[in-house]
Amino acid sequence: QVQLIESGGGLVQAGGSLRLSCAASGRTASDYTMGWFRQAPGTEREFVAAISRGGIGTTYADSVKGRFTISRDNAKNTVSLQMNSLKPEDTAIYYCAQSFGSGLYKSSPAYRYWGQGTQVTVSS
Questions:
Q1: DSSP letters for 38-76
Q2: What are phi and psi of 30, to 5 degrees?
Q3: How far apart are CA 31 and CA 39, in angstroms?
Q4: Which residues contact 35 (CB under 8 A, 6 or more apart)?
Q5: Contact, 25 vs 12, CB < 8 A?
Q6: pLDDT tens digits, one per residue of 2-50
Q7: So what's the pLDDT on residue 31?
Q8: How many helices (H) and strands (E) does the chain have?
Q9: Closest by alpha carbon to 31, among 84, 98, 92?
Q10: Most distant pair of Cα atoms in the chain: their distance
């Protein structure tokens, strides 16, 4: 069993930055693609970013490209999401997830383990 625990959320003004972290315990997360998703009130959960198991490959949603950076430290079993130039529309609960395999998946069914989420609120 895998446990994913997110941290780093909070309240920030538009234009500001936050860094989210996800700590994985249990089965080794380094063998799998990791991703970040988010869900705003009244909306579907949406893909944000994913990183390959070796950390070389990354992919982003168009809405965050150039502003967010995903990274991972396999020695520490952690995945991070650096969020810069935040906008009010980035406000959501952010979830860390571990996939079933090694592709750069953008669809939530490709992910089998999920964290509880961390709230990010961006004020205008």
A1: EE-TTS--EEEEEE-TTS--EEE-TTTTTTEEEEEETTT
A2: -65, -15
A3: 26
A4: 47, 48, 49, 50, 51, 96, 97, 98, 99, 105, 106, 111
A5: no
A6: 899 999 999 999 999 999 999 998 766 788 999 999 999 999 999 999 9
A7: 87
A8: 0, 11
A9: 98
A10: 40
Are 122 and 16 within 8 A, CB to CB?
Answer: yes
Round to whole Å and give the CA distance between 77 and 79.
7
Distance separating alpha carbons of residues 11 and 121, to the nearest angstrom: 5
Contact 110, 32 (CB under 8 A): no
Q: How far apart are CA 79 and CA 73, in angstroms?
A: 6
